[in-house]
Amino acid sequence: MTPQLYSVLHDIGLSEKEAKVYLAMLELGESSIIPIARHAGIKRTTVYNYLEDFTRLGLISITIRNGRRYYVANSPNRLRTMLRSRLEQVETIIPNLFSMWKEEEEKPSVQMFEGIDGLKRVFELSLECESKKIDVIPIESAGHVFVGPEYISRYIEKSREANITFRSLRVPSDKYENYRHFEPEEHDNRTIKVAPDWFTPQSYIQIYDNNVGIFSHAKEIPYALVITSQSYAHTQRLFFESIWQQSTPIREWLREKEKTE
User: Fold this and answer.
1) How does residue 218 score in pLDDT terms, banded at 50, 70 and 90?
2) Could you please report the per-residue DSSP string of 213-247?
3) pTM of structure
4) Contact (CB, 8 A) for 152 and 184
5) Which residues does 89 contact at the CB level (< 8 Å), separation at least 6?
6) How far is Cα 49 from Cα 72, in angstroms, rounded to an integer?
7) How would you classify residue 29: left for phi > 0, otherwise alpha for psi between -120 and 50, otherwise beta?
8) What's the burial of 55, exposed, middle or buried (CB within 10 Å: 0-12/13-18/19+)?
């Protein structure tokens, strides 16, 4: 009886003593309980309990001759059949388990990223979104100013390659020149609007899948948070949608801006 046999039998659900009894029966062939107990080195009363379980699982068979019981191990293929049956049983409850697992997703998780590299990491994470849709409020002082316009340009290019579309909600308090710089080109993956004058958020925000990325406004040690929560992302998306409906398409906003200059 090698340690490997004990280890594998333990992994499939047999205790150490159960494994000893089962292996003893394989080696002995048909036998009464006393030789099995001696070979396994386990008390006879304990072996009785294991034999009842083995019979129920179909691992052994019982014959009675002259009023005495004899036990014999069935083909080891029974182990394979038993495990397949258990796997099939697990498969039947997988949908219910996934339903319960989704409920666990409601519990939010928060990740914090510090420094320029941390901010860039948050941008990169958004490019992995499964929905291929990102709603963003790109406050310049809490995003672009830290990573720089060149990085943002590369980020936008990567988003095009990943077939990600943006709804970008800009605020009038940002620089007018930057609006012209980021005006969407033909076949652009961004739809850009300018929010009403009263809309003055202080954080750069991304909303995608069940995630909300929030970039700090602090200039000493920039940081960003990624909050993962279905309910929180849904609430923020509703907030974004309400402002989006009140905002002006950027081309229209630029034309009106030029008229007043």
Assistant:
1) low
2) EEE---SSS-EEEEEE-HHHHHHHHHHHHHHHHTS
3) 0.57
4) no
5) none
6) 15
7) left
8) middle
